[in-house]
Amino acid sequence: MSRLADVAARWKALDWRADLGLALLAGIGYAVLGWWLWEGRPTGLDEVVMVWQARLLSHGHLAAPIPVHPEAVLTRLTGIGPIGIIGQFSLGTTLLLVPFVAIGQVALAGPAYGAIGVFCWARLVRRLESHAPTAIGAVLLLAISPFWAIQSTSQLAHVPLTAIICLIGLMLARLFALPSQGRAALWLGVLVGLAAWVRPVEALSAAVPAALIVLWAVARGRLPRRVIAQGLLGVAGPMAILLATNTITTGAPLRFSYDVVSGPKHRLGFHESPDGTDYTPARGVLKTRKQMHSLGESTWESRFTPFWPAALGVVLALPALTLLDGWALATVASLMLSYWAYWGNAEWLGPRFILPVLPFMLLAVARLPRLVARWHWALGAAAAVGIVGVVSEGLLRAPIRFREFEAMERATTIDLTRLLIGTPNPGLIIARGDLRRTNEARVRAVSGKLGAANAIVKGREHCDVLWGVRWLEIGVPQAPPVADAWREWCAGPEFQQLQWVSSEVTGALLLFSTPTRPVLRSLGARTALLADSVTFRERTRLLLWERIGKEQWRPRLAAFDYDSARASWAREDSAFALGRRQVGQ
Fold first, then answer.
1. What are the pLDDT digits (tens) for 117-134?
2. Of 115, 209, 480, 583, which has the maximum CB count within 10 A?
3. What is the domain extent for residue 266?
């Protein structure tokens, strides 16, 4: 025990240098893990779209030009804004990736921000916990957490956002400790604004408790009144840029890109969700319970959840809680309350929406041995041994879980640039897309909203959906009953083959489109480019997907026969025309 105390004391004495060393070691570990799992590829369609947005921004663009037939290139995570096709991710999320896009090493973004997150957490822990062994334990528990580690292999924004939240807490602590309070208040406001760039909900969850503490301190005379103005000045700059960017890309300062892609149903609140279901407070409770259970499983990938040790640690620490502890607890509570009122439940690589809860939960766990040791030293030793045992078991199980994630998303994360090497340039790639996503894109080209598309597409037979889509495209929002001629066409081989296609891979591929080698859904080729078949007849390839396992697909390029494609689409048009006559229109 004395040796552990010496190590902790040494860590405390080295201050930021020790924190930097731990962060660098963690970042190297995350980079190795990321290469082992993904081999430098994005981990899903979300990241493909983020990288696409970052590439646009690195060239000075906030959107891509709208083609004549936008339904040919729309993915689930893109939409049509006032200035072109935009991605659903915010300015901050995109900016985080721009430096790594510029150096051609996007795969290093996650490990770099994972290391920064460990460093920021270590700096904050020194303010939250004065007992050195407990403090270094909290830092190590985060650094080796499988949940934090696998999130740090991705380009998702939740890890850097957690780092910013830690910096908000650190700056709040400095506000009460530094003689130059104005600078700390200014930086506190700037950090809140930067967090809003990335994810506004989490920014508010950390900012509101901090603001209440500052107002309370000013009212009690513990802080001068000028810190309020200085904090507002700090947040004003980033917020002005964010609101201006929103105005350019979406047409309104308080309208975010998520609203363009999914419509107002995407927002917080209890209402009909974008997938067409009613989101109620009761559903919110069930979803929150599921998220917390998933967080407990993901933290260490162990059979033993950290929640009970964390809850006990919080209860035992209540008599000695500081203002900064209060801010941390209020931030966690505010974040959970916000996502209780949100319909989404992202589980890819763990419950990432509530990732900022993780470090504070682990601090409560790390405090438990010291707190129970006040009753008897043996209890403290038993708690410490138990934590080490559970973490060790989880670390042994984690590689199996990581491989499950890796296998699930092989299709989306396939390196499509390698596949496209050797294809004609200039030329055309026609991707045979998933029928549901294709129908969504066709509806969105008319209505502009993913929510409207989901309402038409979700929960219905593909044949019925496509019938409704065809009517919508000719200006009839309410389709008549499906005609016999249309059902006969749906029973044929041309329609049936459309139903056996991977759902997300085409969305990823569309973003590899270039002016000289456009990549389009087969739908887009039908409406936009077949008229120019003289140019592309010998320079067109059809991208097919072959199933090689559960949720796994292999791409294959084949020749594209324009004549048979024209004949096939003509038969569909004939079936629709005959169906219109059968229903009297």
1. 999 999 999 999 999 999
2. 115
3. 18-407
> Between 92 and 41, where is the model more confident?
92
Tell me if 455 sits within 8 A of 447, measured CB to CB: no
Identify whether 426 is preceded by a cis peptide bond (ω within 30 of 0).
Answer: yes
Does residue 452 share a domain with residue 359? Answer: no
The verdict on 362 and 474 lying in the same domain is no
The whole-angstrom separation of Cα 583 and Cα 484 is 9
The answer to whether position 54 is within a domain reads yes
Q: Tell me, yes or no, whether 401 and 436 share the same domain.
A: no
Q: Is the dihedral of CA 416, 418, 419, 425 positive or negative?
A: positive
| pTM: predicted TM-score of the whole model, two decimal places | 0.84
CB atoms within 10 A of CB 424: 14
- The total number of residues written for the chain in this structure: 585
Give tens-digit pLDDT for 183-221.
899 999 999 999 999 999 999 999 999 999 999 999 998
Among residues 361, 386, 407, which one ends one of the domains?
407
Backbone angles phi, psi at 549, to 5 degrees: 170, 180
Residue 65 burial (10 A CB sphere; 0-12, 13-18, 19+): exposed
User: What 3-state class would DSSP assign to 245?
Assistant: helix
DSSP code for 525: I
Residue 525 confidence (pLDDT)? 59
How many angstroms separate the CA atoms of 79 and 288, rounded? 29
Q: Which residues contact 29 (CB under 8 A, 6 or more apart)?
A: 149
Whether residue 8 is contained in a domain is answered as no
* C-alpha distances in Å from residue 229, one per residue of 188, 285, 474, 565: 12, 38, 56, 66
In angstroms, what is the C-alpha Rg of the chain?
A: 27
490 and 59 in contact (C-beta within 8 Å)? no
DSSP 480-499: PSPPHHHHHHHTSHHHHGGG
Q: How many domains does the chain have?
A: 2
Identify residue 483 by its one-letter amino acid code.
A
More confident residue, 548 or 163: 163
